[in-house]
Recover the amino acids of this structure.
């Protein structure tokens, strides 16, 4: 089905997601299949949506503005079950003047879909590789192409001129220890592949109870480091990757990076990402602590006039539901991205809130928050991550 990519707001460059039938790779850690084991693609409806001449819904507007489509966040487009639909969908994507972001473990249909795009290179290919050991991957990713094959494909596509992102997502020490990561990254760098995305194995306790015994068994030792231990490992690996001159993406990234700039060069138009604001603050601060306001945020994040347009259906409010029920409940009217960004800036309860990023804290004076003339909070930035920071920093 074709849907607004709500879960990727301020991190993922794509605006709309097309997901086909339930993925058959059988990955034990898959978040998409925990609550929904069976999903069917809705190809005809997706194709019809691409050809709407007059935008009616918010998704129509995103497509009409030429924001990229993601394939896919909820199922791999290149499995035997999905390859025919993916190829059919790409025949129509090839006619659009907009970029395509592919997330896959590779597999049948990938080459056919790329060939349909002809000489175009406004395609970013994100390939998930969670271990360098084929026999280990066979335990928890049993029906996916083996890592050695995925690495071969990543190198081949890089040679063909595509931007390739390698995703160690999730990154877990039981599957990719420090030595393996060093071997892996050294090989990638030698080949000219420098973009890497990493995230932790984020399975919360309530979700662990939903996993079948089979999935628990296949996850094995990786479950021993779910939570804080895995979080610290990912932080340490992030620092090492940055020091190794890789171009790194991670939610809550505490360093500057050109990762998303490179994606935009390939896709042409992308959704706003918080990293742009982080980079801006690093540049503006010059190594010193600075106070930044909502106007700074908007001028960086919402430069495109589209983000100021009124969206009558109020569907943009759905982003808040994914980021926190209370935030969603307390904000009934959200009719533009600017409205949404104002909430994200001021309401620390939202998972999307800038206040929750380790590099930012609320700026205060005499123990009270500093507000601008419109009632927006001011934030303090000094370029150092504060994982246990106070609510208000005196400035």
């Amino acid at each position: 089905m074709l849907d607004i990519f709500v879960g990727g707001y301020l991190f993922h460059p794509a605006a709309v997601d097309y997901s086909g039938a339930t993925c058959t790779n059988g990955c034990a850690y898959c978040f998409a299949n925990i609550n929904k084991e069976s999903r069917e693609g809705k190809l005809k409806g997706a194709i019809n949506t691409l050809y709407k001449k007059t935008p009616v819904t918010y998704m129509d507007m995103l497509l009409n503005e030429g924001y990229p489509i993601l394939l896919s966040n909820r199922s791999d487009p290149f499995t035997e079950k999905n390859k025919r639909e993916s190829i059919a969908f790409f025949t129509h994507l090839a006619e659009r003047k907009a970029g395509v972001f592919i997330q896959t473990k590779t597999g049948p249909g990938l080459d056919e879909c790329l060939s349909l795009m002809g000489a175009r290179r406004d395609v970013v290919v994100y390939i998930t590789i969670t271990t360098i050991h084929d026999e280990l991957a066979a335990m928890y990713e049993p029906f996916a192409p083996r890592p050695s094959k995925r690495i071969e494909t990543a190198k081949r596509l890089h040679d063909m001129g595509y931007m390739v992102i390698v995703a160690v997502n999730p990154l877990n020490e039981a599957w990719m220890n420090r030595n393996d990561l060093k071997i892996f990254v050294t090989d990638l760098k030698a080949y000219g592949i420098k973009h890497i995305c990493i995230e932790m194995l984020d399975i919360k306790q309530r979700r662990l109870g939903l996993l079948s015994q089979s999935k628990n068994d296949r996850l094995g030792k990786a479950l021993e480091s779910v939570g804080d231990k895995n979080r610290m490992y990912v932080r340490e690996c992030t620092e090492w990757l940055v020091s190794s001159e890789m171009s790194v993406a991670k939610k809550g990234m505490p360093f500057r990076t050109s990762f998303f700039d490179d994606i935009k060069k390939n896709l042409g138009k992308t959704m706003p990402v918080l990293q742009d604001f982080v980079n801006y603050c690093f540049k503006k601060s010059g190594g010193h602590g600075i106070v930044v306001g909502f106007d700074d945020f908007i001028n960086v994040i919402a430069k495109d006039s589209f983000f100021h347009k009124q969206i009558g259906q109020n569907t943009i409010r759905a982003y808040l539901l994914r980021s926190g029920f209370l935030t969603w409940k307390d904000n009934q009217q959200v009719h533009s991205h600017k409205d949404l960004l104002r909430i994200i800036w001021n309401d620390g309860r939202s998972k999307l809130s800038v206040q929750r990023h380790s590099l930012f804290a609320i700026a205060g004076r005499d123990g009270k928050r500093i507000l601008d003339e419109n009632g927006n909070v001011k934030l303090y930035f000094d370029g150092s991550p504060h994982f246990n920071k106070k609510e208000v920093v005196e400035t």
About this structure: Residues 274-394 form one domain. The CA atoms of residues 94 and 117 lie 5 Å apart. The chain has two domains: 2-267, 274-394.
